[in-house]
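New to this. Please check this fold:
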Amino acid sequence: VTNFAGEPIAGATVKLDKAGASVTTADDGSFTLAYQSASEPDTVFDDSLVVTQTGYLDYQTSVLLKADISGLNIRLANEDLPLITQEQLFDPMPGSKPFKDNHAPSVLELPDGTLLSAFFGANEGIDHKIYLCRKEPGKEEWTPPEVVMDRAGNPSLFRSTSGKVMLFNGWGGKMRTSTDEGQTWSETRIVCGRCSGPEKNKPVQLEDGTILAPADGVSVEFSKDDGETWTVGPYVGGGKQPTIMFHGNNRLQMMFRTGGNGTIGTTWSEDNGQSWSKPEGSVLPNNNSSIDAVTLRDGTQVLAYNHSHRNEMGHKGRGILNLAMSKDGIAWDAVVLVNYLLRECYQYSYPAVIQSRNGLVHLVYNWHRRSIGHAVINPAAFQPVPMPDGKWPTTGPLSPEEWMKQNPGWDNIDLPDLCN
């Protein structure tokens, strides 16, 4: 167990959540935790490993179906980390990468804390390919973009509790899998005959192992055998590119992209996605651009989106990128203004959001279609501002005006071919 700088942490509590077995870390941060069921000595783990220490965000990871987890490196994040830090995955300037424009990133964390990001790159709207970048814990740089699928776009990354990594092509209902954390990949195959597969937004997994993939047109596709076979669930309609949130007691929520002057759509399930309510509008605006959400471990819903309509906030309403939070999926509070820049052809769009094992929130997004932005956000630093009328704050630290004062000259980069 180490801190965010990689230094060992002594005295942290490490426990198996269900079994209750626990131990504290030694001076060098190491620990040994062995547990065996007295009634079922031959079973593997079906539990969560939880690490806590005063002054640090909790760490939690699944050890489902694993006989042992030796060699696991646990990196705790301090509660006093900045609210947000940002970077780009690669140099946005012309000639610095094997494609001109890029779009629709996805993000995934591996058990050792390595981050993967997949996105599609193209040249003048042709030669679409899915690329993958990797960032290992403690490293300053992401690896250069590497092609992982041809003739593809709007990818989605997912890792099941068994350890299988899945990469979906949102434009063709196809997928590839990896059993070595994305180092090598299977042959491309069709998800299923009637399936479209998830377009951009990540699948989720239920406690019984069922995988739910949010599919275009607002529907859900199911797999009960670790992604080998899939079945089509009920069609909801009303929009596209849905994202799934958990509310407990078999209750799920999907929110989704709708029209340019409407609101983000929402629909509810009371039976783990087997049936869904009639879609309706939420309080939050939608600019006909994609959104994504994640349910944090404490049950908080975090939504990444452009708080705008199509004719507001710059290029197609994509000049502003926001995070909002909710306890019930209905009433939303403003928590982070991620980026704001009103310039022709400049945009922050198609966000993807996850919570990492150390409690931080990771957001990737299309950075002006010339790179992929990556923001690391500390939810312990949230200072929510209620939005009962669905209006973003116009005063205070979250207002665009105040944000510009605190970020003078932010992102003022000249990309010479941006409007071409």
About this structure: The mean pLDDT is 93. Residues 362 and 376 are 5 Å apart (CA to CA). The two ends are 49 Å apart (CA to CA). The chain is about 0% helix and 40% strand.
